[in-house]
Design brief:
Number of strands: 15
Number of helices: 5
Order of helices and strands: HEEEEEEHEHEEHEEEEEEH
Largest sheet: 9 strands, antiparallel
Number of domains: 2
Helix content: 10-25%
Distance between the termini: 67 Å
Structural class: alpha+beta
InterPro entries: Smlt3025-like
Strand content: 25-35%
Keywords: Signal
Shape: globular
Signal peptide: 1-23
Oligomer: single chain
Protein name: Lipoprotein
Organism: Xanthomonas translucens pv. translucens
Length: 290
């Protein structure tokens, strides 16, 4: 009986082991085919290998709060789709403000990075977008006494490119840091460490565009044109700008980064950021509040 039982056990074992070895991954082990954000927007994820050189580039789904978008893959940073956390941005080429050719951002080169205009969209469902923008030029609570962090403490300049510049009041700024005990050799005592601010106001005097750029003290542009393309020059510095404005109709704060040489095109960049989001938004696909 024992030998028979042992044989039966061995036969059973040999029949089960192949099944164990060939068992398919459970659904819990497989990446989800869709992703749902906090506002209930569901986007389709593209699983498996992707080719950033694919032409024409495939349409990839993205979500901006409750809004679904379909965006050609070559508009993304890796030219393959949104980030793993579902965030996304558009990467455009200056001065055309068109996407890079499929695959051009693979193995990112310095010249490609230099002429990139990066546009990030932040949906705000608990903070008014105007208030979020206002906080950027009225000072953070941790540094509320710093005269460099308040628009009214800065020195207003003559308008340029349709913007009003505000330079840091360096004597006041240096006095502030000296009173806080900073050593005289600290970078904060260098004029070129303090950004220039630029604003545009609406008809009611409210700021609707806020831009920070590397100080005018840095005279170098850091760029040049070669074969019709904007590229990095031999200059030691590469002045940059950080540009913010609101899209209140979709509760979105837009954040843009580019080289300072592109500042004269700030309005064209804003218009492109607006038009692309309108173009890619799936009509009638907004998730309704529940």
């Amino acid at each position: 009986m024992r030998s028979v039982s042992r044989l039966a056990f061995c036969l059973l074992l040999t029949s089960v082991l192949p099944m164990v070895g060939c068992a398919k991954p459970s659904a819990a082990d497989s990446p989800a085919a869709t992703s749902t954000n906090a506002q209930g927007c569901v986007r389709k994820r593209h699983l498996g290998p992707q080719d950033p050189f694919q032409t024409p580039p495939p349409l990839m789904e993205a979500c901006l709060g409750p809004y679904k978008l379909r965006i050609p893959a070559n508009y993304f940073g890796d030219q393959m789709g949104p980030n793993f956390d579902d965030s996304f941005g558009l990467y455009l080429e200056h001065p055309t403000l068109q996407p890079f050719a499929p695959g051009e951002r693979t193995h990112l080169r310095l010249d490609v990075s230099t002429r990139t205009v990066y546009i990030a969209y932040h949906y705000l469902d608990r903070v008014d977008v105007h208030e979020a923008l206002r906080r950027r030029y009225t000072g953070y609570s941790a540094d509320k006494d710093n005269p460099a962090e308040h628009l009214e403490s800065r020195l207003r300049q003559s308008a340029v490119y349709g913007l009003t510049p505000y330079y840091a009041d360096l004597p006041k700024v240096f006095s502030y840091y000296k009173a806080k005990g900073y050593r005289s050799s600290a970078p904060v005592f260098k004029a070129d460490e303090h950004d220039d601010w630029y604003v545009e106001r609406d008809a009611n005097g409210e700021i609707r565009t806020f831009i920070k750029c590397t100080s005018h003290v840095v005279a170098e542009t850091g760029v040049e044109y070669r074969d019709g393309k904007l590229v990095r020059s031999q200059d030691a510095e590469l002045p940059e700008c950080h540009h913010l404005f609101a899209l209140p109709e979709i509760s979105t704060l837009v954040e843009v980064r580019y080289v300072r040489a592109a500042l004269p095109d700030w309005k064209r960049i804003e218009d492109a950021a607006r038009s692309y989001i309108e173009k890619f938004m799936v009509k009638g696909n907004r998730v309704q509040n529940r």
